[in-house]
Amino acid sequence: xxxxxxxxxxxxxxxxxxxxxxxxxxxxxxxxxxxxxxxxxxxxxxxxxxxxxxxxxxxxxxxxxxxxxxxxxxxxxxxxxxxxxxxxxxxxxxxxxxxxxxxxxxxxxxxxxxxxxxxxxxxxxxxxxxxxxxxxxxxxxxxxxxxxxxxxxxxxxxxxxxxxxxxxxxxxxxxxxxxxxxxxxxxxxxxxxxxxxxxxxxxxxxxxxxxxxxxxxxxxxxxxxxxxxxxxxxxxxxxxxxxxxxxxxxxxxxxxxxxxxxxxxxxxxxxxxxxxxxxxxxxxxxxxxxxxxxxxxxxxxxxxxxxxxxxxxxxxxxxxxxxxxxxxxxxxxxxxxxxxxx
Length: 342
Known about the structure:
Elements: E1 5-8, E2 11-15, E3 26-29, H1 32-40, H2 47-63, H3 70-82, H4 89-104, H5 110-140, E4 148-151, H6 166-175, E5 181-185, H7 192-203, E6 208-211, H8 216-221, E7 225-230, E8 234-236, E9 241-244, H9 247-256, E10 261-264, E11 270-271, H10 288-291, E12 292-293, E13 296-297, E14 310-313, E15 320-323, E16 326-328, H11 332-339
Parallel strand pairs: 4-5, 4-7, 5-6, 7-10, 8-11, 10-15
Antiparallel strand pairs: 1-2, 2-3, 8-9, 9-14, 12-13, 15-16
Protein backbone atom coordinates (compact mmCIF):
# COMPACT_ATOMS: atom_id res chain seq x y z
CA UNK A 1 0.00 0.00 0.00
CA UNK A 2 1.37 3.40 -0.95
CA UNK A 3 2.33 5.69 1.94
CA UNK A 4 0.66 9.00 1.18
CA UNK A 5 2.23 11.03 3.98
CA UNK A 6 4.75 10.42 6.77
CA UNK A 7 6.24 12.34 9.67
CA UNK A 8 10.04 11.98 9.54
CA UNK A 9 13.09 13.56 11.15
CA UNK A 10 13.66 15.49 7.91
CA UNK A 11 10.13 16.88 7.69
CA UNK A 12 6.67 15.94 6.42
CA UNK A 13 7.19 13.59 3.47
CA UNK A 14 4.36 13.09 0.99
CA UNK A 15 3.98 11.48 -2.40
CA UNK A 16 3.56 14.07 -5.16
CA UNK A 17 0.13 13.26 -6.59
CA UNK A 18 0.50 15.77 -9.43
CA UNK A 19 2.96 13.55 -11.31
CA UNK A 20 1.37 10.13 -10.75
CA UNK A 21 1.13 7.64 -12.40
CA UNK A 22 4.03 8.42 -14.75
CA UNK A 23 6.43 9.25 -11.94
CA UNK A 24 6.65 8.28 -8.27
CA UNK A 25 8.13 11.29 -6.55
CA UNK A 26 8.23 12.29 -2.89
CA UNK A 27 8.24 15.84 -1.57
CA UNK A 28 9.69 16.81 1.82
CA UNK A 29 8.07 19.79 3.52
CA UNK A 30 10.44 21.29 6.09
CA UNK A 31 8.15 24.01 7.44
CA UNK A 32 4.44 24.79 7.68
CA UNK A 33 4.51 27.12 4.68
CA UNK A 34 5.71 24.27 2.45
CA UNK A 35 2.92 22.06 3.83
CA UNK A 36 0.41 24.80 2.98
CA UNK A 37 1.74 25.03 -0.59
CA UNK A 38 1.54 21.25 -0.94
CA UNK A 39 -2.12 21.29 0.10
CA UNK A 40 -3.06 24.25 -2.11
CA UNK A 41 -1.21 22.91 -5.18
CA UNK A 42 -2.74 19.42 -4.72
CA UNK A 43 0.57 17.68 -4.17
CA UNK A 44 -1.49 16.10 -1.43
CA UNK A 45 -5.28 15.94 -1.84
CA UNK A 46 -8.33 14.15 -0.55
CA UNK A 47 -10.14 15.39 2.55
CA UNK A 48 -8.72 12.93 5.13
CA UNK A 49 -5.17 13.28 3.75
CA UNK A 50 -5.49 17.07 3.86
CA UNK A 51 -6.50 16.77 7.51
CA UNK A 52 -3.43 14.67 8.32
CA UNK A 53 -1.21 17.10 6.41
CA UNK A 54 -2.68 20.04 8.31
CA UNK A 55 -2.05 18.35 11.66
CA UNK A 56 1.54 17.71 10.69
CA UNK A 57 1.81 21.27 9.36
CA UNK A 58 0.84 22.69 12.75
CA UNK A 59 3.29 20.38 14.50
CA UNK A 60 6.22 21.23 12.25
CA UNK A 61 5.39 24.91 12.47
CA UNK A 62 5.64 24.97 16.24
CA UNK A 63 8.94 23.04 16.10
CA UNK A 64 10.50 26.02 14.37
CA UNK A 65 8.79 28.94 16.07
CA UNK A 66 10.32 31.38 18.57
CA UNK A 67 9.88 29.82 22.04
CA UNK A 68 9.05 33.24 23.46
CA UNK A 69 6.37 33.94 20.86
CA UNK A 70 4.98 30.49 20.02
CA UNK A 71 1.43 31.47 21.02
CA UNK A 72 1.27 34.29 18.46
CA UNK A 73 3.04 32.24 15.80
CA UNK A 74 0.55 29.41 16.34
CA UNK A 75 -2.22 31.73 15.12
CA UNK A 76 -0.25 32.53 11.96
CA UNK A 77 0.48 28.85 11.33
CA UNK A 78 -3.16 27.84 11.71
CA UNK A 79 -4.43 30.74 9.62
CA UNK A 80 -1.99 29.99 6.79
CA UNK A 81 -3.02 26.34 6.65
CA UNK A 82 -6.73 27.19 6.91
CA UNK A 83 -6.57 29.44 3.84
CA UNK A 84 -5.33 26.68 1.52
CA UNK A 85 -8.59 24.95 0.48
CA UNK A 86 -12.06 25.97 1.69
CA UNK A 87 -14.29 22.95 1.02
CA UNK A 88 -12.70 19.97 2.82
CA UNK A 89 -13.85 20.26 6.43
CA UNK A 90 -11.20 17.78 7.63
CA UNK A 91 -8.66 20.57 7.14
CA UNK A 92 -10.37 22.77 9.73
CA UNK A 93 -11.13 19.82 12.03
CA UNK A 94 -7.43 18.89 12.19
CA UNK A 95 -6.24 22.47 12.67
CA UNK A 96 -8.74 22.98 15.48
CA UNK A 97 -7.71 19.71 17.15
CA UNK A 98 -4.03 20.67 17.10
CA UNK A 99 -4.68 24.24 18.20
CA UNK A 100 -6.82 23.17 21.15
CA UNK A 101 -4.09 20.80 22.31
CA UNK A 102 -1.40 23.46 22.01
CA UNK A 103 -3.44 26.00 23.97
CA UNK A 104 -4.18 23.44 26.68
CA UNK A 105 -0.43 23.14 27.19
CA UNK A 106 0.17 26.87 27.61
CA UNK A 107 2.61 27.42 30.47
CA UNK A 108 4.41 24.12 29.85
CA UNK A 109 8.04 24.07 28.61
CA UNK A 110 8.25 24.58 24.84
CA UNK A 111 10.02 21.21 24.47
CA UNK A 112 7.00 19.47 25.96
CA UNK A 113 4.56 21.41 23.74
CA UNK A 114 6.55 20.51 20.64
CA UNK A 115 6.78 16.84 21.57
CA UNK A 116 3.07 16.60 22.37
CA UNK A 117 2.12 18.18 19.03
CA UNK A 118 4.24 15.65 17.14
CA UNK A 119 2.59 12.84 19.08
CA UNK A 120 -0.85 14.23 18.26
CA UNK A 121 -0.09 14.62 14.54
CA UNK A 122 1.13 11.03 14.37
CA UNK A 123 -2.00 9.98 16.27
CA UNK A 124 -4.20 11.72 13.67
CA UNK A 125 -2.33 9.75 10.98
CA UNK A 126 -2.71 6.41 12.77
CA UNK A 127 -6.36 7.01 13.62
CA UNK A 128 -7.13 7.79 9.98
CA UNK A 129 -5.86 4.40 8.79
CA UNK A 130 -7.85 2.58 11.48
CA UNK A 131 -10.95 4.64 10.63
CA UNK A 132 -10.63 3.80 6.94
CA UNK A 133 -10.43 0.09 7.66
CA UNK A 134 -13.55 0.36 9.83
CA UNK A 135 -15.34 2.19 7.00
CA UNK A 136 -14.31 -0.60 4.65
CA UNK A 137 -15.63 -3.27 7.00
CA UNK A 138 -18.94 -1.43 7.43
CA UNK A 139 -19.38 -0.97 3.70
CA UNK A 140 -18.16 -4.28 2.27
CA UNK A 141 -21.51 -5.99 2.79
CA UNK A 142 -23.28 -3.35 0.70
CA UNK A 143 -21.27 -4.14 -2.44
CA UNK A 144 -23.10 -6.64 -4.69
CA UNK A 145 -21.09 -9.75 -5.57
CA UNK A 146 -20.36 -10.36 -9.24
CA UNK A 147 -20.94 -6.76 -10.35
CA UNK A 148 -18.87 -3.70 -11.14
CA UNK A 149 -18.58 -0.75 -8.76
CA UNK A 150 -18.50 2.77 -10.19
CA UNK A 151 -16.40 5.35 -8.38
CA UNK A 152 -15.64 9.00 -9.08
CA UNK A 153 -12.43 10.88 -8.28
CA UNK A 154 -9.96 9.25 -5.88
CA UNK A 155 -11.01 8.28 -2.36
CA UNK A 156 -8.31 5.69 -1.83
CA UNK A 157 -5.03 5.39 0.03
CA UNK A 158 -3.78 8.49 -1.79
CA UNK A 159 -6.67 10.57 -0.46
CA UNK A 160 -6.12 9.41 3.12
CA UNK A 161 -3.31 8.28 5.39
CA UNK A 162 -3.81 4.80 3.92
CA UNK A 163 -6.35 2.18 2.73
CA UNK A 164 -8.98 4.70 1.64
CA UNK A 165 -12.65 5.48 2.18
CA UNK A 166 -14.53 4.61 -1.04
CA UNK A 167 -11.65 2.42 -2.21
CA UNK A 168 -11.44 1.05 1.32
CA UNK A 169 -14.98 -0.29 0.86
CA UNK A 170 -13.93 -1.85 -2.45
CA UNK A 171 -10.75 -3.30 -0.95
CA UNK A 172 -12.66 -4.75 2.00
CA UNK A 173 -15.24 -6.35 -0.33
CA UNK A 174 -12.44 -7.99 -2.31
CA UNK A 175 -10.75 -9.14 0.91
CA UNK A 176 -14.09 -10.67 1.94
CA UNK A 177 -13.98 -12.83 -1.20
CA UNK A 178 -16.44 -10.95 -3.39
CA UNK A 179 -15.90 -11.09 -7.14
CA UNK A 180 -16.12 -7.45 -8.09
CA UNK A 181 -14.53 -5.12 -10.61
CA UNK A 182 -14.41 -1.35 -10.91
CA UNK A 183 -15.29 1.37 -13.38
CA UNK A 184 -13.23 4.46 -12.55
CA UNK A 185 -14.55 7.73 -13.91
CA UNK A 186 -11.59 9.69 -15.30
CA UNK A 187 -12.75 12.75 -13.29
CA UNK A 188 -12.04 15.81 -15.37
CA UNK A 189 -10.41 18.25 -15.16
CA UNK A 190 -7.69 16.98 -12.77
CA UNK A 191 -8.07 13.32 -13.81
CA UNK A 192 -7.88 11.88 -10.30
CA UNK A 193 -9.79 8.79 -11.42
CA UNK A 194 -7.64 8.07 -14.45
CA UNK A 195 -4.33 8.96 -12.82
CA UNK A 196 -4.78 7.94 -9.20
CA UNK A 197 -7.71 5.56 -8.63
CA UNK A 198 -6.81 3.41 -11.62
CA UNK A 199 -3.15 3.33 -10.53
CA UNK A 200 -4.02 2.34 -6.96
CA UNK A 201 -6.39 -0.44 -7.96
CA UNK A 202 -3.97 -1.72 -10.58
CA UNK A 203 -1.32 -1.98 -7.85
CA UNK A 204 -3.79 -4.10 -5.84
CA UNK A 205 -4.60 -6.35 -8.79
CA UNK A 206 -8.28 -5.33 -8.78
CA UNK A 207 -9.93 -5.50 -12.20
CA UNK A 208 -10.40 -1.85 -13.19
CA UNK A 209 -11.51 -0.06 -16.34
CA UNK A 210 -11.34 3.69 -16.88
CA UNK A 211 -14.37 5.36 -18.42
CA UNK A 212 -14.78 9.01 -19.35
CA UNK A 213 -17.13 10.96 -17.12
CA UNK A 214 -19.83 11.17 -19.79
CA UNK A 215 -19.95 7.38 -20.14
CA UNK A 216 -21.32 6.75 -16.63
CA UNK A 217 -24.98 6.99 -17.69
CA UNK A 218 -24.45 4.46 -20.48
CA UNK A 219 -23.01 1.81 -18.18
CA UNK A 220 -25.53 2.46 -15.39
CA UNK A 221 -28.39 2.00 -17.84
CA UNK A 222 -26.79 -1.15 -19.24
CA UNK A 223 -27.11 -2.83 -15.83
CA UNK A 224 -23.39 -3.50 -15.47
CA UNK A 225 -22.97 -1.50 -12.26
CA UNK A 226 -24.08 -2.91 -8.93
CA UNK A 227 -23.49 0.23 -6.89
CA UNK A 228 -21.68 3.56 -6.84
CA UNK A 229 -19.25 4.36 -4.02
CA UNK A 230 -17.66 7.81 -3.68
CA UNK A 231 -15.88 9.79 -0.98
CA UNK A 232 -16.75 13.21 0.41
CA UNK A 233 -15.11 16.49 1.38
CA UNK A 234 -17.92 17.81 3.56
CA UNK A 235 -21.31 16.44 4.59
CA UNK A 236 -24.03 18.71 5.96
CA UNK A 237 -26.36 17.74 8.80
CA UNK A 238 -29.17 16.87 6.37
CA UNK A 239 -26.97 14.45 4.40
CA UNK A 240 -26.16 16.74 1.46
CA UNK A 241 -22.69 15.76 0.25
CA UNK A 242 -19.92 17.88 -1.26
CA UNK A 243 -17.54 15.82 -3.35
CA UNK A 244 -15.46 16.21 -6.50
CA UNK A 245 -17.20 18.00 -9.35
CA UNK A 246 -19.28 15.54 -11.38
CA UNK A 247 -20.46 13.51 -8.38
CA UNK A 248 -23.93 15.08 -8.50
CA UNK A 249 -24.39 13.98 -12.11
CA UNK A 250 -23.40 10.41 -11.23
CA UNK A 251 -25.82 10.38 -8.30
CA UNK A 252 -28.75 11.55 -10.45
CA UNK A 253 -27.94 8.93 -13.09
CA UNK A 254 -27.66 6.22 -10.44
CA UNK A 255 -31.08 7.02 -9.00
CA UNK A 256 -32.66 7.16 -12.46
CA UNK A 257 -31.37 3.65 -13.10
CA UNK A 258 -32.11 2.16 -9.68
CA UNK A 259 -28.47 1.76 -8.65
CA UNK A 260 -27.53 2.37 -4.98
CA UNK A 261 -25.32 5.42 -4.42
CA UNK A 262 -23.12 5.27 -1.32
CA UNK A 263 -20.83 7.86 0.22
CA UNK A 264 -17.88 6.63 2.32
CA UNK A 265 -16.42 9.15 4.74
CA UNK A 266 -15.14 9.45 8.32
CA UNK A 267 -17.11 11.19 11.04
CA UNK A 268 -14.59 14.06 10.79
CA UNK A 269 -16.02 14.88 7.34
CA UNK A 270 -19.42 15.67 8.86
CA UNK A 271 -20.16 19.34 9.38
CA UNK A 272 -23.20 19.24 11.59
CA UNK A 273 -23.12 23.03 11.97
CA UNK A 274 -24.48 23.31 8.42
CA UNK A 275 -28.17 22.57 7.94
CA UNK A 276 -27.80 21.87 4.23
CA UNK A 277 -25.31 21.63 1.41
CA UNK A 278 -26.28 25.10 0.22
CA UNK A 279 -24.01 26.43 2.97
CA UNK A 280 -20.90 24.49 1.88
CA UNK A 281 -18.23 26.76 0.34
CA UNK A 282 -17.17 25.58 -3.12
CA UNK A 283 -13.55 26.07 -4.13
CA UNK A 284 -12.85 27.59 -7.55
CA UNK A 285 -9.68 26.21 -9.15
CA UNK A 286 -7.38 27.81 -11.78
CA UNK A 287 -8.66 28.03 -15.37
CA UNK A 288 -5.55 26.30 -16.70
CA UNK A 289 -6.74 23.01 -15.21
CA UNK A 290 -9.57 23.09 -17.77
CA UNK A 291 -7.84 24.72 -20.74
CA UNK A 292 -4.69 22.59 -20.51
CA UNK A 293 -3.98 18.87 -20.06
CA UNK A 294 -0.47 18.12 -18.79
CA UNK A 295 0.62 21.56 -19.95
CA UNK A 296 -0.82 21.21 -23.46
CA UNK A 297 -3.52 23.71 -24.45
CA UNK A 298 -6.80 22.06 -25.53
CA UNK A 299 -8.95 25.22 -25.68
CA UNK A 300 -8.73 28.56 -27.49
CA UNK A 301 -6.52 31.23 -25.94
CA UNK A 302 -8.45 33.75 -23.88
CA UNK A 303 -11.61 31.64 -23.57
CA UNK A 304 -13.66 32.11 -20.40
CA UNK A 305 -13.59 29.27 -17.86
CA UNK A 306 -15.44 28.28 -14.72
CA UNK A 307 -13.77 25.54 -12.69
CA UNK A 308 -15.55 24.65 -9.43
CA UNK A 309 -13.65 21.84 -7.75
CA UNK A 310 -16.71 20.35 -6.05
CA UNK A 311 -20.46 20.03 -6.37
CA UNK A 312 -23.16 19.19 -3.84
CA UNK A 313 -25.30 16.07 -4.13
CA UNK A 314 -28.69 16.50 -2.40
CA UNK A 315 -29.49 13.86 0.21
CA UNK A 316 -32.39 12.43 -1.79
CA UNK A 317 -29.86 10.81 -4.14
CA UNK A 318 -27.78 9.25 -1.35
CA UNK A 319 -28.67 5.66 -0.43
CA UNK A 320 -26.37 5.57 2.58
CA UNK A 321 -23.36 7.27 4.18
CA UNK A 322 -20.76 4.73 5.32
CA UNK A 323 -18.72 5.85 8.34
CA UNK A 324 -16.43 4.14 10.83
CA UNK A 325 -19.33 4.17 13.31
CA UNK A 326 -21.84 2.54 10.98
CA UNK A 327 -24.03 3.33 7.97
CA UNK A 328 -26.33 6.34 8.11
CA UNK A 329 -29.55 6.33 6.11
CA UNK A 330 -32.40 8.80 5.73
CA UNK A 331 -33.56 10.75 7.62
CA UNK A 332 -29.96 11.97 7.89
CA UNK A 333 -30.84 14.76 10.34
CA UNK A 334 -31.39 11.94 12.84
CA UNK A 335 -28.89 9.26 11.79
CA UNK A 336 -25.79 11.43 11.29
CA UNK A 337 -25.85 13.17 14.71
CA UNK A 338 -26.51 9.78 16.30
CA UNK A 339 -23.44 8.25 14.67
CA UNK A 340 -21.41 11.30 15.61
CA UNK A 341 -22.43 10.84 19.24
CA UNK A 342 -24.40 14.07 19.42
